[in-house]
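FIELD: query
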Amino acid sequence: TCALPIYFKDVESVEYSPDGSRLLSAHTEIKLWDTQHDWQPVTTTDWKAGWFAISPDGLQVSRVQGKTISLARLADGERVASWTIPANGARMTFGADGRLLAVASENGIMLLDSQDGTVVGTLRDETTTAWLGESGLRFHAEGHLLFSADGDQRVRVWDVASQRLLIATPSFSGEPFRLTTWRDADDFETH
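FIELD: result
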């Protein structure tokens, strides 16, 4: 149990480091908190807004704002890279090994090489005009699947290697839907 400091009022987004020792909060300024020592701020960046993802090794944080992605060291907030992407970005997440970065965009979900920002693929579903990944993006722990919570109130499951859509749930605005476990990418059980 912990008591969150008053600074968490009006926070727009948060992201935990993989080991749980740091929490990144974003509102009018970006703060990195030490969750192990009385929630003291470790560092503050000059970034004012955007969407964030912390690398799986906990060493870097990535930020997207508009068509710009920035990469910084988590320990001190110093920027180490910046790239321009072809479309406005939103939510983002690192792949399990940290080499791939998925970015929700107005043109689909862009898959980027996290070392140099090269777009290595784009996931699209031609049956919708909704933003894919607008409400959330997460890689499977093994990195071979990507889950997107999308603007049309659906969840989509993507095969990362083939960049193929495996399943799209019915819209959550209607009947409840449950995606249960599967043995491999071609064997989904839904209810």
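FIELD: remark
Residues 176-191 have pLDDT under 50 and may be disordered.
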